[in-house]
Design a protein that fits this description.
By secondary structure, the protein is mainly α. It has helices spanning 2-17, 21-34, 39-51, 55-68, 73-100.
Length: 104
Amino acid sequence: VDLEAEIYLKAGLAYFKEGQYERSIEMSRKAIQLRPDFASAYNNICASFIGLQNWDEAIKAGTMAVKLDQDNQLAKNNLARARSQKVLSERSEKRDRRRWSPMK
């Protein structure tokens, strides 16, 4: 099971490097089905959702990766990036709404 989970993770990483984030997530989820405590697979999902700019899902996966492996610095970095990007995105949306709101 561990070897098969590693194969799915490696496939997910290859898809990630090609920018095929949805396929990367799919492969990483298959790895997690085989090995539910696979922090590296959760981290890969986090990074893939960052690539898709889906901050909430990235934060969920990153939180799980860090919960499973508190020493995984890459997972900590990806989680921090997802959180900061979410804040920046929300600020930008608020600015855009104010800028384009109809005049009264």
